[in-house]
Structures are given as C-alpha cells and as structure tokens.
TrEMBL record, chain A:
Domain ABC transporter: residue ranges: 8-234
SMART domains, sorted: AAA
Keywords: ATP-binding, Nucleotide-binding, Transport
Organism: Gemmiger gallinarum
Protein name: ABC transporter ATP-binding protein
Any one GO molecular function term: ATP binding
Classification via Pfam families: ABC_tran (PF00005)
Entry annotated with the keyword DNA repair: no
InterPro entries per record: AAA+_ATPase, ABC_transporter-like_ATP-bd, ABC_transporter_ATP-bind, P-loop_NTPase
Automatic annotation (TrEMBL), chain B:
Gene3D superfamilies for the chain: MetI-like (1.10.3720.10)
Keyword Lipid metabolism: no
Transmembrane segments: 12-31, 43-65, 72-92, 112-132, 221-241
Protein name: ABC transporter permease
Residue ranges constituting the ABC transmembrane type-1 domain according to the UniProt record: 64-244
Length: 250, 259
C-alpha cells in the first residue's frame, strides 16, 4: 500500500517532564499510505510518544521536530484524525451526526457529507443505528463510531492509541478487519500504537519497537507477511515471537 | 407493562391526594383545629370565587400573572448571567481565581436575607422584586454551569480539536452541549428557588401578587385567603417544574434516554 513519498518525518523528538527524560532523541519516517505499528514494554511512554506527534494539550516537544508533508504539524491545515483509547463519540450527537462532525467542521457540501456518512456507516455496519445516541450503543459500536468519524474526513494521517485495548478478542478481530478494509480502501497513512504484539503483527506493514524509558527506538521490523494474515501461520508466529523477544524486560 | 405501571402510579397519586383532603376535612370538622383553620370546602369555594371576585385590585389570575412575570424576568436574566459566569469559571483559571471566592461567599446567603439591602438600593418597585427572584436563581445556575464546564471530558475536546475545530467552536460545539444537562438540573432548582423568592419579595411592600395575597390574608386574619394563596403557589410551582422537565427531555434526550 505504501509509496516512496514521505508523509511524516520525525527528527530528534525529545520530551522531558521536568528532569525526567521520557522520549530520547527519536527519529523515523512514515511513508504515504503506510500502516505503522508502534509497540513497546508497558509504561515505556507510548502515549506520550503519540501525544507529542499530535501536540495535544500540554505535550509540546522539548526539542526536535515533526513534519507532515515537509511542513510543521498544523491541525487546522493538515487533515489528521485521532482515535483514542477511550470512547470519544460526542454523547449529544447521534451516530450519524458524530460521523458527519469532521466534515461539517471542514465545511464540505451537504451532498458530499451525506454520501460520505452513508458510505462510512455502511463500512462499519452501523447504518441501521444511525439515529441512535452513544448511550444506547455497546462498546464495540462506540469504537466503530470513532473509526467511521475519523475515516470520514479522509485523513492524510490517522493516529490510533490502543483503540481496541478495552474490547474482548472476538470484537477486536472484527474491528481490526474493519480497519484494514478501510485503510486499503482509503489509502490513509496510519500510525497505530498498541501493547498487543499479535495485533501489531496482524495489522502492520512495519513495526517500530520502543525501548524502556527513556524511550528510544530499539528496532524497526518490516512486516511483509501476505494478507489476509493468519494468526496460526508459522511465519506469523515467528514474527510475533521475534517482536516479543525485543520488548522483553524480564 | 409500562402502561400498567403508569396506571398504578396515577391511582396511588389520586388516592394520596384524596386521603390528604379527607384528613384535612376530618381535622377541621371534628377536632379543635376547626376553631382556627378553614376546611377544604371553604378554601375551594374561595378559590373558585376568586376567579371572578377581585382580591384587592385583581382577580386571582391577575395576581398569578404578576408573580409569574417577576419570576420569569428575574430567572431569565439570572440564568443567562449564571451560565456565562459558571462556564467562565469552569474553563478559565483566571475567571475561577477571581470570581470563585466571591461566589462562594455569597452563595450561602438566601434571597430573603437580601430583602433589606435590595429595597435600600432599588426601592420597593418592580426592580427589587426582579433582583430578589434573580438572586434565588443565580447561585444554582452558576454552580451547575461551573461544575458542568469543569467536568467536560478532555478527550472530547482533544478529539474535536484533532478534527479541525477552532478554539471558539470548541466552546459552542463541545463545552456548551456537554454541560447542558447539568445546567438544566440547575435551572430546575433555580426556578423553584425563584418562585420561593418572589413570595418573600411580595410579602414586603407589594400591592399585588401571590405573596401579597398571603400577606393580606395574614394581616386581616383571613386564613382561608392564606390557604388559597398557598394552594395556588403549590399548583403553579408544580406546573413550572413539569414544564422544565418537558423542555429538558426534549433538549437533553441523549442524556436521559433509556436503553
């Protein structure tokens, strides 16, 4: 899926909280249309890593820079979407209004919004729930709302922070397949953070393995396993074991 | 199933009110209470006649409308100020640092305690009454808007920002809708506090209104009139609360909808 064009370029990203060095001089690139997974030991600063990428709230870089299309990140300008660990559908909007939110903010024409929302609801299987409010939906449906809302704006870059961490396995498999289908369909660049190694091997084209704090990049692993992938396949398990060995801290 | 429960509830409600009137009738017929207190029939008779025979300058509907106007003006102005101040305190550290201490100091003072000062500054005209009703509403709305704004889920704000929402739009699209249920809960309490405050305000220096009716009854030892005033106040208070709940159900259906 990925081309040779660089979408995201991170150079010397460093983050300190007071004297505590959390991210230590991290540099990497993500190609356009690539699916990159980031894994690391528990508490290694994966979320800080992602927060720095998105400059959310107080997370300004201590030093280094992040470029999208060779320009510094600007959320008003770059079309970036973010799917959180927690369910983040707006509770006062219906499923349909939630999915349309980003498109309305970007002032797209009404006809386009309608068409895109219909398409996204169809892809995540929520068409018949379009008029429901979030408090009427199950956990997996809520996360599908967030996914549909993110893909609806056709983001150049989609950041996902352990989006399926709170779901049971069968739902996770289903949503992972949904995600892959949307990614292949839209060609969006994805950075996916997870602590679940199997998930990373299942989804990614490349895996970035992080070290313990202060966090750096331990290794980059290219994942060329053919799709659709099979978690019982020998090559799949070899790759999973390899990544597991890399993040072992015990 | 739900209809059956609704029916049961109605039966119980009617039975409870009937029991209350029977008890009242019994006490005012067969016990020494009858020396001082009118019975339900007497009160209902006066209530009905007051629809066409003026009490003071107006029939009862006139008094009611005067009181309602005072409540609604005070309540509306106070609600707008309260929402703005509450959300400002909940979202800006500066506003919180400046206004919260003053607010906390004034909050426990009930509207009745303000009567003398308000009359001193604004006289005994309508303005004083609006202000007293407003004081009753103001603290509840402000406090709820403040807590609501403080508890807006930061992830929702982050999410809206990521999707390109400007800072100004975040206020209207995320913060305000997010605290609407809290604000409404505050407004419900505020409306009844305002309604209580108008009676207090009308008992001092008014010529019309429900509070004035009670005061007039009290001054002329007309306990029947006092009780008519009380019943009207109870009924209107109940209607206002129901009205607020209906509006809330429409505006905040996402928050109270059953699964």
């Amino acid at each position: 899926m990925s081309s040779n064009e660089v979408k995201v370029k991170v150079s010397h990203m460093t983050k300190k909280f007071g004297d505590l060095l959390v991210l230590n001089d991290i540099s990497f690139e993500v190609k356009k249309g690539e699916f990159l997974c980031v894994v690391g030991p528990t508490g290694c600063g994966k979320t800080t890593f992602l927060n720095c990428l998105t400059k959310l709230g107080v997370y300004q870089l201590t030093s280094g820079e992040i470029l999208i299309n060779n320009e510094p990140v600007d959320l008003q300008k770059h079309n970036v979407a973010y799917i959180f660990q927690e369910y983040s559908a707006f509770p006062w909007q219906t499923v349909e209004e939630n999915v349309a939110y980003g498109l309305k903010i970007k002032k797209r024409p009404a006809a386009e919004i309608k068409a895109r929302v219909d398409e996204m609801l169809e892809m995540v299987g929520l068409t018949e729930y379009r008029n429901y409010y979030p408090n009427q939906l199950s956990a997996s449906m809520l996360q599908r709302v967030s996914i549909a809302r993110a893909f609806a704006v056709q983001p150049e870059l989609l950041l996902m922070d352990e989006p399926y961490g709170q779901l049971d396995n069968s739902l996770r498999y289903k949503l992972e397949d949904d995600l892959l289908r949307l990614w292949q369909h839209t060609g969006t660049t994805v950075i996916f953070i997870t602590h679940n190694i199997e998930e990373a091997v299942y989804l990614s084209e490349r895996i970035l393995v992080l070290t313990n704090k202060p966090t750096g990049i331990k290794q980059e692993i290219v994942n060329n396993l053919p799709r659709p992938r099979d978690v019982t396949d020998v090559a799949f398990n070899q790759l999973r074991d390899k990544v597991t060995d890399l993040i072992k801290w015990w | 199933m739900k209809r059956k429960i609704d029916l049961e509830k109605t039966v119980y409600a009617v039975a409870a009110i009937a029991f209350f009137f029977l008890l009242w009738g019994f006490l005012t017929t067969f016990t020494p209470v009858k020396e001082t207190t009118p019975g339900p029939i007497e009160v209902l008779q006066l209530l009905v006649s007051s629809f066409y025979t003026p009490i003071g300058s107006k029939v009862i509907v006139g008094h009611l409308l005067v009181s309602l106007r005072r409540v609604l003006v005070g309540f509306s102005v106070a609600t707008i100020i309260g929402i703005v101040l509450g959300i400002a305190m909940g979202t800006s550290r500066w506003a919180e640092a400046i206004f919260k201490p003053i607010f906390e100091l004034l909050r426990p003072i009930p509207p009745i305690a303000w009567i003398s000062l308000v009359i001193l500054f604004f006289g005994i005209g309508e303005t004083s009454k609006y202000i007293l009703c407003g004081i009753g509403a103001f603290t509840n709305v402000t406090l709820n808007a403040y807590t609501g704004a403080q508890n807006v889920d930061p992830e929702l704000i982050g999410c809206a920002r990521m999707l390109g929402t400007s800072e100004r739009d975040i206020f209207f699209r995320v913060i305000l809708p997010s605290c609407t249920p809290q604000i409404f809960a505050g407004m419900q309490v505020a409306l009844s506090t305002s309604w209580m405050a108008v009676l207090a305000a009308e008992m001092v220096g008014a010529q019309e209104g429900c509070g004035w009716m009670i005061q007039r009854g009290s001054d002329t030892l007309n306990i029947t009139l006092v009780m008519v005033g009380m019943i009207v106040i109870g009924l209107v208070g109940m209607l206002l609360a129901t009205l607020m709940r209906t509006i809330e159900r429409r505006l905040c259906s996402w928050n109270i909808m059953e699964n």
